[in-house]
Amino acid sequence: xxxxxxxxxxxxxxxxxxxxxxxxxxxxxxxxxxxxxxxxxxxxxxxxxxxxxxxxxxxxxxxxxxxxxxxxxxxxxxxxxxxxxxxxxxxxxxxxxxxxxxxxxxxxxxxxxxxxxxxxxxxxxxxxxxxxxxxxxxxxxxxxxxxxxxxxxxxxxxxxxxxxxxxxxxxxxxxxxxxxxxxxxxxxxxxxxxxxxxxxxxxxxxxxxxxxxxxxxxxxxxxxxxxxxxxxxxxxxxxxxxxxxxxxxxxxxxxxxxxxxxxxxxxxxxxxxxxxxxxxxxxxxxxxxxxxxxxxxxxxxxxxxxxxxxxxxxxxxxxxxxxxxxxxx
Amino acid sequence: xxxxxxxxxxxxxxxxxxxxxxxxxxxxxxxxxxxxxxxxxxxxxxxxxxxxxxxxxxxxxxxxxxxxxxxxxxxxxxxxxxxxxxxxxxxxxxxxxxxxxxxxxxxxxxxxxxxxxxxxxxxxxxxxxxxxxxxxxxxxxxxxxxxxxxxxxxxxxxxxxxxxxxxxxxxxxxxxxxxxxxxxxxxxxxxxxxxxxxxxxxxxxxxxxxxxxxxxxxxxxxxxxxxxxxxxxxxxxxxxxxxxxxxxxxxxxxxxxxxxxxxxxxxxxxxxxxxxxxxxxxxxxxxxxxxxxxxxxxxxxxxxxxxxxxxxxxxxxxxxxxxxxxxxx
Lengths: 329, 329
Prior knowledge:
2 copies of one chain form a homodimer.
Chain A: E1 12-17, H1 20-32, E2 38-42, E3 48-50, E4 53-55, H2 57-67, H3 84-91, H4 102-116, H5 121-131, E5 137-140, E6 147-152, E7 155-158, H6 159-165, E8 172-178, H7 187-194, E9 198-203, H8 208-217, H9 221-227, E10 232-235, E11 238-239, E12 242-243, H10 248-254, H11 261-267, E13 274-278, E14 289-293, H12 300-320, H13 324-328
């Protein structure tokens, strides 16, 4: 589709974003939208307490990616990292299944300290972003604790134990988001979603079941997405019928889902107005408006191109719609 | 004085030990006494909470020194340390006046985690020692919090803020050990001090006012030292009328004390049976038994020689004494 090189539209864009895949599109969006018009709402269902520290893996992945300090090989953690803390921790008999680099550790120690002093996760995140030179707003989906737990063939366990410690080996039976119902959407995200000049909501190509669902489960989030006049557009995380990265293929199979864009469209049914699928794929779902683009984001250009496509697609959907007063008439 | 190369005496030795200077003699003692006969009781008045972590500077200095992983240049911290945590913390706007190396940090994070789970500081310290290959017992003076505070020309402040953040610049008016009276001596130290076969107590060449006094202030410690039949021998921390390291000269002057072995002997008056002073010094106090030895501990041999001298001196004092039943008769 035709995409303008420079984005001049007004109105805010809210991107719902998980970890590595989501962070790539978030980076692309941050390069094509004026800073103050973009809010990146990040999953905190993966957050956990480890070694007495509050770890926010997705928030950190997005922050490091946008700050240009992310490890380009792993997608998580920091570039040019050292591991002397971990090695010493191992000598002392500490838990080492979750890798914490020396640079990365500063984030967890300082965030934990500030949380204990009563600061909000969003305040701390925004302050870290400023200090790392990030101008767009990265916000945790909620200030309240939401914790993803999985019921598996090896029993119930917190997400990180399943994902990192057990390397996704147990078979998943169901996924729960503890605390989500009573949690509230972070207030600036909520205000942006309710704002009459909201331009669009973008669901990044993150794992729908493990990264996006916890966001949708937060009290009021689903209603806000259903209630907005702005278009909601998702990018399918599948390319060629497979996940680009992570355990999504295995999770989808175990939950009894076919690996297809149609499954993704069904999963977001009633929430999204459009789905962007990879240009290499021939099987296009027919139950939702579809845009086709390269969704494999290797280079920064790939990320910016996809960002422009998603925005243009959302704007097209918006343009085709009757005005709000006409619809409500 | 004549010192036997190999120590074959039975009975326990308890060494009261502060940071860097004390750790040197502790290392010497650990090399000349059978492991199970030595207990190193370490000052925790310098402990503090920083960045949400429990830091025990003296315990760590002694532990690292005996494990052979201490930084030989600074005396504190770990050898071949890296500082990526600190650099990242600075970027994030965290407090950086107290240097925490990447390797060192593992000690603080893991100790804090275990303390929060309800373990005793001594249990954690002993476990760390085992894992670092230390066979002698290093024990915090107390499981209870004792916090050294100084009243200065710049107002009252916690010890580390005076010592590290303010680089000992404010003039000291008085020193307080908050919590000391209601704190109890760590139980294994207490048992050793009360044991009828206690061989001797050694007061290491640590700062008497800032490192040894907090130990003496712990509820019951002074009484136990006064009540034991075993000799109590101190090593003067002064060499040539000066402190080998640290702010002792300045502190002693500000508190109105002359820098001399006699002042040290007076300070420990009623507690010690002997004082070891440096062989280069001519001014020898006459109010206490004195042994003369090189107390500048550069090499491991220096440390072991001084350890042997102190033990032989204590044994001599012991031999000159009437037996307990004779004295009490």
